[in-house]
Design brief:
The protein is mainly alpha-helical and about 170 residues long. The chain has one domain (about 5-150). The protein has helices at about 5-25, 30-50, 55-75, 95-115, 125-150, 160-165; strands at about 25, 80-85, 85-90. The chain has a three-stranded antiparallel β-sheet. The protein is globular, with a radius of gyration of 17 Å.
């Protein structure tokens, strides 16, 4: 898959997830961790295979990852958690959107600073950036869910992608 197609797919999937979470959805462990782990793996693979950062470039990668993880953790504090049908649900709030916007601004600022110091743009794969932020959010939500004392929602038998492809057959 080409880089621009990958970016479009990732952005589309993130938009779908955000819309679903603003509506409210069951909080499932797999949903919390699958996307971040997959995106971080793709981003890290791209970074190590295609670019191989070293020295100050690696410092920018680590700074971006740390910022993404922290801002994601902050974003994980913003969804409303509640119990419905005997298990946890989550619903994004306006504060979640505010933190998303702040995260984007910080990432743009870090990217501009890195570019100004001569760091190539390829050292900041979007998949890695989004994945690290989602991982920070997932870790915070998991801790909050544990404190809530209610169970995660049961896993679905059919995935979102299965339902999507079944509708268009």
């Amino acid at each position: 898959m080409s880089g621009s197609v990958t970016v479009l797919v990732v952005v589309a999937l993130v938009v779908v997830v955000v819309i679903r979470r603003f509506r409210g959805e069951p909080l499932r462990a797999r949903d919390l961790y699958a996307a971040p782990v997959i995106l971080v793996a793709i981003g890290a693979h791209t970074l190590l295979k295609d670019v191989r950062p070293s020295g100050s470039d690696l410092a920018w990668v680590l700074a971006g990852a740390a910022a993404g993880l922290l801002l994601g953790a902050l974003r994980g504090l913003t969804p409303r958690l509640f119990v419905r049908d005997g298990h946890l649900w989550q619903r994004y709030s306006v504060w979640t959107l505010v933190v998303w916007v702040v995260s984007a601004a910080v990432n743009i600022g870090l990217g501009a600073a890195a570019t100004a110091t001569g760091t190539p743009e390829q050292l900041r794969p979007m998949t890695l950036s989004i994945g690290v932020g989602l991982l920070g959010e997932a870790l915070t939500l998991a801790l909050r869910a544990r404190r809530a004392g209610a169970a995660f929602a049961p896993e679905e038998e059919e995935s979102f992608l299965d339902r999507l492809t079944r509708r268009h057959r």
